[in-house]
Amino acid sequence: MENGTSVHHNQTLGVWTDYTFEYKVISVFLVSLICGVGIVGNMMVILVVLTAKHMRTPTNCYLVSLAAADLMVLTAAGLPNITDALHGQWVYGYAGCLGITYFQYLGINASSCSITAFTVERYIAICHPIKAQFLCTRSRAKKIIMLVWALTSVYCVMWLFLSDTKKLVYDNVVLLNCAYKVSRSHYLPIYFTDFTVFYVLPLMLATVLYGLIARILFLNPLPSDPKESSEKGKERKRETRRRKGGRERRRRTRVTKMLAVVVILFALLWMPYRTLVVVNSFLDRAYLDTWFLLFCRLCIYLNSAINPVIYNAMSQKFRAAFKKLCHCGPNWFGCSRQNLHLLFLSTPNRTTLLNQTLH
Where is the signal peptide (predicted)? Predict the structure, then answer.
């Protein structure tokens, strides 16, 4: 991920020995804070969706995929940045260079595809509710997620052949660096393909689809079920349908707003890094200011860490599930202290009590 901005020197960003003490303290603190919060938050997203039955919706399946991708970005890109700041060189060796570079791009590309997937799912659910009954299902969502991860995993294999460790001499000191094998002229077409497929096109598609969704939600009423058309003459049932439709409309609006915020933050927080790479691609000497590079990295890590915060702030279901998970503590599998106590009761019905506890 970070190699892309250093197209002039063709090496990983930030691998210098002249980091100031202030830079080391600030970068290590901020990266550790953002990555720590992000790792815990994304793990909670995965846990609440997998353990709470009412949270296993098609949309939340895509959010689990996004959380897994964000975890990969935070661990493969964020945590190595801490050692870069402390040691001033690559410390993970050749295998680490290949593996970490691969998982960086896999997490980035899988997160972009996951965002695109739930954007399309929201469009179908809102604009084509009849088709959504058989298109927007949990089983179909799982198949799409598996396809997304399979395709991105295969696509990112090329980074295993494009990355390598190199030795650099800086102030008479030999430094190990994780860099690209190919030259700048060969790398740029690869980067711009990646930039177009996993950033520009998803944002263009999201802009169009959320525009159509907004028109339905805020300008037109939600399409009614054709099965209910024969009952329109009955006032009581019409009022019931109106109330039910209003609640469903508000629920869909809240979910759509939350997902739209995720997409907007994805566009904004990735913009500094993407813009820097594009600008450096046309400069004879790349712009590699240390503090601005840190800012670009922090924006990327923040993008992967902030989504659970958005879910907690904008979704009542996620907020309640997070609170329940936190209150359960080590007993989050659903076994309370009282239930655990029942497991050790010496009664003839202990087997029955055990079954009741687990189910």
Answer: none
